[in-house]
Amino acid sequence: MSEQKQGDYRTRTDICLRCPQGCEVQTMLGPDDEILNISGNKCKLGREYVEQEIRDPRRVLPTSVRVKNGTRPLVPVWTPEPMPKGMIMDLAAESRKIEVEAPVHVGDVVLDDWRGLGIRLVASGEVERAE
Question: CB within 8 A of 96, min separation 6: which ones?
Answer without folding.
Answer: none
